[in-house]
């Protein structure tokens, strides 16, 4: 019986690449999406081309009832969830002087509370199975901070605390929980940056380039494999050496 992976926010960018990489490893995939669009159809097709099953599950991760519903849908169809990747995330960057309260709470609600909501609904099944892997996508700015991102950095730092606490709670059930902290990765999230800003960022990265979604997905592939069965509660950076 194939293993099952749920990836949130997986219609594009890093989430899509993680879904494709795990599909290549033989996982049946549940792709969580918020908005149905062509990207979703394309992602589903690409996953199915790898000869595994793919079910798209609609839901806003910041809405607890949505997450309760779509986790049940996956259990009804696949019977289990072996791997959860909490990837869905948003930015609403601005300096605190201009930041509205909703800009702060929306980012926390999706990135941090969303991670709680999905995990809370998945964990009973992993506890019962006495096995599971949870990967939370944080960010290097959750460690360093970044001007213009008090909301985003707080959410990503929160994910690190969440990851370590959960890892301690569930280790005895053989459930491993780790966080991945990407640096600057080429996706639609960073496409909004001006070309000169991107060049400036790349010049300060020791490997002299922005990362690719594959760079993050390859680490996730390792963290769900048997090769990482003694690693839990860790935050691993994928950042071209930006943070050291
Ligand atoms: P992206 O291209 O903007 O993709 C984000 C995905 O999350 C989209 O599929 C989006 O779907 C989904 N999403 C957003 N809000 C959601 C919600 N409430 N419920 C369900 N899905 C939702 O971003 P990305 O660059 O791939 O980022 C993926 C993750 O990596 C995020 O957690 C991000 O913070 C983190 N990260 C990215 C970078 C980077 O440089 N790119 C660096 C560090 C960390 P919709 O289209 O429906 O909104």
What is the fold's blueprint, element by element?
Layout: E1 4-7, H1 13-24, E2 28-33, H2 38-48, E3 54-58, H3 64-78, E4 83-86, H4 101-129, E5 132-137, H5 141-144, H6 150-170, E6 175-182, H7 188-191, H8 195-203, H9 213-223, E7 235-238
Parallel strand pairs: 1-2, 1-4, 2-3, 4-5, 5-6, 6-7
Helix pairs in contact: 1-2, 1-9, 3-4, 4-6
The structure holds NADP nicotinamide-adenine-dinucleotide phosphate (NAP).
Task: Please give a quick description of this structure.
48% of the residues lie in helices and 15% in strands. With 244 residues, the protein is an alpha/beta fold. NADP nicotinamide-adenine-dinucleotide phosphate (NAP) is lined by residues 8-9, 11-15, 32-35, 60-62, 87-90, 110, 114, 137, 139, 182, 184-185, 187-190.
Would you write up a description of this structure?
A seven-stranded parallel sheet has the order 3-2-1-4-5-6-7, sandwiched between helices. It has a single domain (4-238), classed as 3-Layer(aba) Sandwich (Rossmann fold), CATH 3.40.50. The protein has helices at 13-24, 38-48, 64-78, 101-129, 141-144, 150-170, 188-191, 195-203, 213-223, and strands spanning 4-7, 28-33, 54-58, 83-86, 132-137, 175-182, 235-238. It is of the alpha/beta class. Helix 3 runs parallel beside helix 4 (101-129) and helix 4 packs parallel to helix 6. Helix 1 (13-24) links the parallel strand 1 (4-7) and strand 2. The chain is built from nine helices and seven strands; from the N terminus they run E-H-E-H-E-H-E-H-E-H-H-E-H-H-H-E. Helices cover 48% and strands 15% of the residues.
